[in-house]
């Protein structure tokens, strides 16, 4: 790598990202480069990385290019690939707006979990059509130390295990991924959410993210939690014909999640760009060893 690489830093409810604009997919980002950029001490720091590429220029997104000009090539902070990132897609849209690639209103974004429609509102918040949740049957258990809880298996394109607990402190330090069983439940790993009630249609959560550790927020996790809470509360908009909205408090802020009668889920929250700069090529080369 011989040139400096432009980057920005942004966050959505304090789920933070290194943003690498690369319309023609010319920047090589192997997992070690992503992990170095996301390193909070030796790099820029982030829970994940948003590689901003034109769909037509990326082999994983070419088939979506007629519906979405831009592809969110999302990576976790450890360099692994994930299907979807709910906070990330809002920050991705904010970057496109700031760069003049998108205006207020609706924007289609290609992701590994399909094309998502993002609405950039005048008031600053961004709403994302997150698609439908899948809730495969089957008993899953997550544990912390000696304690374990039944968990609801929810897919938002990426995997989640949602456990309702008495106190968010029950989740402990979350320095390591909470073990789950059976091991076959999540062959590719899982994001684990611990949830408490705050009031009617109002919950709070902590999350241990696959590939990142405990984060201050997770958008797909908040959607999984809202759907799991609704089913636990006996509410299914596909049956009642009425939308249901949950407010989800996270350590880094609040997200509002609505499930519509057709099962489509909308998530609304903030997205902020905080800085921009350039990565020294020599530093990145030395970080790659
Ligand atoms: N923070 C994200 C989720 C990022 C991906 C996740 N760690 C995974 O591996 O599935 C969000 O806001 O949804």
From TrEMBL:
Q: Name one GO molecular function term.
A: diaminopimelate epimerase activity
Q: Which PROSITE patterns match?
A: DAP_EPIMERASE
Query: Is Amino-acid biosynthesis a UniProt keyword of this protein?
Result: yes
Q: Name its pathway.
A: Amino-acid biosynthesis; L-lysine biosynthesis via DAP pathway; DL-2,6-diaminopimelate from LL-2,6-diaminopimelate: step 1/1
Q: Which SUPFAM superfamilies would you find in this protein's record?
A: Diaminopimelate epimerase-like
Reactions the enzyme catalyzes? (2S,6S)-2,6-diaminopimelate = meso-2,6-diaminopimelate
Catalytic site positions: 85, 85 (proton donor), 218 (proton acceptor)
Residues carrying the site annotation Could be important to modulate the pK values of the two catalytic cysteine residues: 160, 209
**Which of UniProt's keywords are assigned here?**
Amino-acid biosynthesis, Cytoplasm, Isomerase, Lysine biosynthesis
Instruction: Specify the enzyme's EC class, one word.
Output: isomerase
Q: Which Pfam families does the record associate with it? A: DAP_epimerase
Top-level taxon of the source organism = Bacteria
Which subcellular locations apply to this protein? Cytoplasm
Task: Report what the protein is called.
Answer: Diaminopimelate epimerase
Q: Its encoding gene is what?
A: dapF
